């Protein structure tokens, strides 16, 4: 028996498929395997969208975006079957003519998906009422304009994923018209009865010859799938001699030059040790760690052992960075023994907390040493050509935390040095951290009072991973998704936050719709006007 399944495992390729019987349907005799393969998923999506979610009825109006694609064509066929009034968008003139000839869609009902003129056009043709149903696969402004097209009690069905993945916002005022917004992201395995029923109803329509696959059917051998440019539906047909392109496993991003050294001041501190471990994961091969206690301290010995074990060439110095001659001696020694320094992170600190009235001058000065002469020495003695010069500063300099006037002063000086260094040309950035949980001074119980104060003042700590994600930004520069993809990097989880959606700006090439949709290719890139801003920010 020729059968096909609408299985949750349909992304898996099998010669023999075994699944829940509810998900199988016999293929009608007049339909070939290839046609059946082209029929099921697109009709399932269109049927579920228009009939299950939107409850489209005879005489109602529907706007189908990207209508020349597989789902778009299926939606046209189903809308015509039920007797709905159809408006469509397409990306090219070729697709427009295709829909006019193949589905008899009136020319004045076909709009471009490459601009937003469809919104006015649809309003004009519906006497400003809007449409009862939108089947949407466009994104960004086109999605928002389409949402505005909702007639009273209109149903908006989202089959695209872009704005959902980017967690973008929706205008709520449209809901006053009684509109609904639904997404087609169903969890198939939890809805087997419904999935099977829809498949059966689709196959019944196919048996009655009321529906047929999207046209034209584009049959590709596996080895040609990457060059597919098409209208309609792509079917992949396996042959024994097909060469299947395989993506090599993603490489771990390598941020650090193996022929360079990276200097960390305060390099045996809590945050520094966390950063060094992360840097080694990202190809750090040579590191210079400076702290007053140096390699003979317990932390120094443990770090030296760990780094040796991981194949890192580590030079650990007892060096007070506030002492210019000590730092100069270290840099001179490194010039002989280590590859050239290409990056610096300042993570040195000392705390001497007390209320300002009770603070001795010695206590006032001690925290300033690493953060005033210390940062200045690093700034003036290290080359201008560093790839990054990152200063770990503190929000105490901004907020003024109680009992930390000295520390706050040191941090504001560090921030000022970052501004100064950038104004002179070289890279620099100071990051005003709040409280870091699980690693660093506060987490290691350095001062319970600080911990209590930070909680009392409503400071919410960030986790080690978040701290390292910030460091990643600072040492590599702010990436946008296209640059990350080009470098083979994975998008970090926080890119889903709408706060970062501006970094995910869609760019288009000549062959693609300006507004997304399933009948065109989309890729994300950084437009020129953003690139300069980002490179400034990422310094
Ligand atoms: N942890 C947090 O929650 C937090 C919050 C806001 C800001 N920050 C900032 O993050 C950075 C690192 O903090 P952390 O938690 O890792 O501190 P930490 O664990 O106390 O480490 C600081 C390190 O600095 C070294 N140091 C002090 N004075 C020095 C000097 N003059 N020259 C060279 N090394 C010196 C100390 O080692 P020796 O005693 O051996 O010199 C110590 O290992 C600091 O700049 C801090 O202001 C941290």
Describe how the helices and strands are arranged.
Layout: E1 3-5, E2 24-26, H1 33-53, E3 61-64, H2 70-82, E4 85-90, H3 93-103, E5 110-112, H4 117-125, E6 131-136, H5 141-148, E7 150-158, H6 162-165, E8 180-183, H7 192-207, E9 217-221, E10 233-237, E11 261-265, H8 270-281, E12 286-291, H9 298-309, E13 313-318, H10 324-337, E14 341-346, H11 361-371, H12 373-381, E15 388-394, H13 396-399, H14 405-424, E16 429-433, H15 440-443, H16 448-456, H17 464-476, H18 481-486, E17 506-507, E18 523-524, H19 528-537
Parallel strand pairs: 3-4, 3-6, 4-5, 6-7, 7-8, 9-10, 11-12, 11-14, 12-13, 14-15, 15-16
Antiparallel strand pairs: 1-2, 17-18
Bound molecules: NADP nicotinamide-adenine-dinucleotide phosphate.
Question: Can you characterise this structure?
Answer:
By secondary structure, this protein is α/β, with parallel strands linked by helices. The chain is 38% helix and 16% strand. The protein contains 19 helices and 18 strands. The model is unreliable at 506-539 (pLDDT under 50). 39% of the residues are buried. It has helices spanning 33-53, 70-82, 93-103, 117-125, 141-148, 162-165, 192-207, 270-281, 298-309, 324-337, 361-371, 373-381, 396-399, 405-424, 440-443, 448-456, 464-476, 481-486, 528-537, and strands at 3-5, 24-26, 61-64, 85-90, 110-112, 131-136, 150-158, 180-183, 217-221, 233-237, 261-265, 286-291, 313-318, 341-346, 388-394, 429-433, 506-507, 523-524. Strands 5-4-3-6-7-8 form a six-stranded parallel sheet, sandwiched between helices. It folds into three domains: 3-237, Medium-chain alcohol dehydrogenases, catalytic domain (Quinone Oxidoreductase, Chain A, domain 1); 261-479, NAD(P)-binding Rossmann-like Domain (Rossmann fold, 3-Layer(aba) Sandwich); 482-537, no CATH class. Bound molecules: NADP nicotinamide-adenine-dinucleotide phosphate. Residues 265-266, 268-272, 290-293, 320-322, 347-350, 369-370, 374, 392, 394, 433, 435-436, 440-442, 446 line the site of NADP nicotinamide-adenine-dinucleotide phosphate (NAP). Residues 511-539 are annotated as: Disordered. Residues 260-440 form the Ketoreductase domain. This is Lovastatin nonaketide synthase. Residues 3-236 form the Enoyl reductase (ER) domain. Residues 520-531 have a biased composition (Basic and acidic residues).
